Amino acid sequence: MPHPVAPRSALPEAAPLTLPDAGSPRPAVLRGRIGSGFAPVPHRYHLYLCAQCPLSRSVSRALVLLDLEGSVPRTLLGPDPGDPDDPGRAALRRAYEAAGHRHPAPSTAPALCDTWSGRVVTNHTPDILDGLLRLSTEPAFRGAP
User: Fold this and answer.
1) Domain housing 72
2) Are strands 111-114 and 45-50 parallel, antiparallel or unpaired?
3) Domain-located, residue 44
4) I need a labelling partner for 55 at 20 to 30 A (CA). Which of 6, 38, 66, 79 fits?
5) pLDDT averaged over the chain?
6) pLDDT the model gives residue 105
7) What's the pTM value of the predicted model, to 2 decimals?
8) Within-domain flag for 17
9) Which residues of 67-98 are buried (b: 16+ CB within 10 A; e: fewer)?
């Protein structure tokens, strides 16, 4: 018996895609995963977040909702990515360099870093959220100080 097929609805208009200037460097997307070379251990990971970034705010909310504030520390970066006096930006730059990405592109946030190796695990927000969810299911993270 054939199944009725519903007519397709029109897709909403998408906003025009704006690309950066051809000469401007693009940030590298790092896609490491907790559990794939990065063990889920309390206090091993550190988040770098920027208050002006909606993606960073989403990660911060997830950290609170998953009750991981006590086991995943975070650093709130200043608003100016080029500020040489911001110690958080300097630490994040070192983590990008440790990951092998010595390029002129900016060190972007949010970023999840491994404190054992000193490198960025991922700066891809969906991967960060997946990693936090995985950490929240680990018995070692339940009630971690």
Assistant:
1) 33-141
2) antiparallel
3) yes
4) 38
5) 76
6) 59
7) 0.73
8) no
9) ebeebbebbebeeeeeeeebebbebbeebbee
Asked whether residue 19 is assigned to any structural domain, the reply reads no
The model's pLDDT over 51-74, given as tens digits with 9 standing for 90+, comes to 889 999 999 999 999 999 888 999
Q: Find how far residue 135's CA is from the centre of its chain.
A: 14
SS3 45: strand
89-118: average pLDDT: 80
The tokens describing 55, both together, are: 């993606």
Neighbours of 29 (CB within 10 A): 10
Query: Do the beta carbons of residue 134 and residue 68 sit within 8 Å?
Result: no
Interval 8-40: pLDDT, tens? 444 444 444 343 444 444 456 655 667 666 677
**Does 26 map to a domain?**
no
Q: What band does 81 get if pLDDT is binned at 50, 70 and 90?
A: confident
Q: What's the number of domains the chain is made of?
A: 1
Reference 112, options 124, 100, 94; nearest CA is 124
CATH number of 39's domain: 3.40.30.10
